[in-house]
Design a protein that fits this description.
It is a single chain. By secondary structure, the chain is mainly beta. The chain is built from no helices and 11 strands. Strands 2, 4, 5, 6, 9, 10 and 11 form a 7-stranded mixed beta sheet that branches. A 4-stranded antiparallel beta sheet has the order 1-3-8-7, with no helix packed on it. Strand 5 and strand 6 form a beta hairpin. It is globular. The mean pLDDT is about 95.
Length: about 120
Protein backbone atom coordinates (compact mmCIF):
# COMPACT_ATOMS: atom_id res chain seq x y z
CA UNK A 1 0.00 0.00 0.00
CA UNK A 2 1.10 3.51 -0.80
CA UNK A 3 0.84 6.20 1.83
CA UNK A 4 0.29 9.78 0.79
CA UNK A 5 0.82 12.66 3.18
CA UNK A 6 -0.36 16.13 2.29
CA UNK A 7 1.01 19.26 3.86
CA UNK A 8 1.13 22.98 3.29
CA UNK A 9 -2.44 23.96 3.95
CA UNK A 10 -3.39 26.85 6.15
CA UNK A 11 -5.32 30.05 6.53
CA UNK A 12 -4.58 32.75 3.99
CA UNK A 13 -6.18 35.95 2.84
CA UNK A 14 -7.77 36.26 -0.56
CA UNK A 15 -5.13 36.91 -3.16
CA UNK A 16 -2.51 35.00 -1.25
CA UNK A 17 -0.63 31.86 -2.18
CA UNK A 18 0.01 28.43 -0.78
CA UNK A 19 2.08 25.49 -1.91
CA UNK A 20 0.72 22.07 -1.08
CA UNK A 21 2.91 19.00 -1.01
CA UNK A 22 2.00 15.34 -1.32
CA UNK A 23 4.75 13.02 -0.18
CA UNK A 24 4.38 9.40 -1.26
CA UNK A 25 5.91 6.35 0.37
CA UNK A 26 6.53 4.76 -3.01
CA UNK A 27 7.61 5.81 -6.46
CA UNK A 28 5.11 8.20 -7.97
CA UNK A 29 6.44 7.16 -11.35
CA UNK A 30 4.57 3.89 -10.91
CA UNK A 31 1.24 5.69 -11.12
CA UNK A 32 -0.47 6.73 -14.30
CA UNK A 33 -1.76 9.90 -12.75
CA UNK A 34 -1.30 11.91 -9.60
CA UNK A 35 -3.99 14.37 -8.74
CA UNK A 36 -5.22 16.94 -6.31
CA UNK A 37 -8.85 17.00 -5.29
CA UNK A 38 -10.70 19.29 -2.97
CA UNK A 39 -13.90 19.11 -1.03
CA UNK A 40 -15.73 22.02 0.47
CA UNK A 41 -18.22 21.45 3.29
CA UNK A 42 -21.49 20.17 1.91
CA UNK A 43 -20.09 19.71 -1.58
CA UNK A 44 -18.77 16.81 -3.60
CA UNK A 45 -15.09 16.17 -3.95
CA UNK A 46 -13.81 17.58 -7.21
CA UNK A 47 -10.69 17.19 -9.26
CA UNK A 48 -8.55 20.30 -9.08
CA UNK A 49 -5.49 19.26 -11.04
CA UNK A 50 -3.85 16.14 -12.37
CA UNK A 51 -0.49 15.21 -13.78
CA UNK A 52 -0.02 12.03 -15.80
CA UNK A 53 2.97 9.80 -16.31
CA UNK A 54 3.43 11.32 -19.75
CA UNK A 55 3.76 14.73 -18.05
CA UNK A 56 0.46 16.02 -19.32
CA UNK A 57 -1.55 18.14 -16.92
CA UNK A 58 -5.12 19.16 -16.58
CA UNK A 59 -6.93 21.61 -14.36
CA UNK A 60 -10.41 22.42 -13.31
CA UNK A 61 -11.66 25.48 -15.13
CA UNK A 62 -12.02 27.30 -11.85
CA UNK A 63 -8.28 27.13 -11.12
CA UNK A 64 -6.74 27.44 -14.57
CA UNK A 65 -4.14 30.15 -14.65
CA UNK A 66 -3.88 30.24 -10.88
CA UNK A 67 -2.83 26.74 -9.83
CA UNK A 68 0.11 24.69 -11.05
CA UNK A 69 0.64 21.00 -10.43
CA UNK A 70 4.13 19.58 -10.60
CA UNK A 71 6.07 16.58 -9.42
CA UNK A 72 9.53 15.68 -8.29
CA UNK A 73 9.99 12.00 -9.01
CA UNK A 74 13.27 11.85 -7.12
CA UNK A 75 11.49 13.03 -3.99
CA UNK A 76 8.29 11.10 -4.70
CA UNK A 77 6.42 14.32 -4.14
CA UNK A 78 3.66 16.09 -6.00
CA UNK A 79 3.04 19.78 -5.51
CA UNK A 80 0.18 22.14 -6.03
CA UNK A 81 1.13 25.78 -6.21
CA UNK A 82 -1.91 27.92 -5.61
CA UNK A 83 -1.82 31.60 -6.45
CA UNK A 84 -4.44 34.32 -6.31
CA UNK A 85 -6.48 32.33 -3.87
CA UNK A 86 -10.16 33.03 -3.58
CA UNK A 87 -12.59 32.25 -0.76
CA UNK A 88 -14.22 29.66 -3.00
CA UNK A 89 -10.94 27.75 -3.01
CA UNK A 90 -11.57 26.91 0.63
CA UNK A 91 -11.78 23.20 1.34
CA UNK A 92 -9.94 20.07 2.26
CA UNK A 93 -7.37 19.20 -0.37
CA UNK A 94 -6.53 15.57 -1.01
CA UNK A 95 -3.79 13.89 -2.96
CA UNK A 96 -4.63 10.88 -5.11
CA UNK A 97 -2.49 8.30 -6.85
CA UNK A 98 -4.01 6.13 -9.55
CA UNK A 99 -2.92 3.19 -11.62
CA UNK A 100 -5.18 2.43 -14.53
CA UNK A 101 -4.61 -1.28 -14.01
CA UNK A 102 -6.62 -1.28 -10.79
CA UNK A 103 -10.04 0.07 -9.96
CA UNK A 104 -9.01 2.09 -6.93
CA UNK A 105 -6.64 4.84 -6.09
CA UNK A 106 -4.76 5.87 -3.00
CA UNK A 107 -5.72 8.88 -0.94
CA UNK A 108 -3.95 11.03 1.56
CA UNK A 109 -5.50 12.33 4.76
CA UNK A 110 -6.07 15.80 3.38
CA UNK A 111 -4.86 19.24 4.27
CA UNK A 112 -7.16 22.14 4.99
CA UNK A 113 -7.04 25.32 2.96
CA UNK A 114 -9.05 28.27 4.20
CA UNK A 115 -9.13 31.51 2.27
CA UNK A 116 -10.52 34.50 4.07
CA UNK A 117 -11.83 37.73 2.60
Amino acid sequence: QVQLVESGGGLVQAGGSLRLSCAASASISSFNVMGWYRQAPGKQRELVAGISSDSSTNYADSVKGRFTISRDNAKNTVYLKMNSLKPEDTGAYYCNAKRYSVSYGYWGQGTQVTVSS
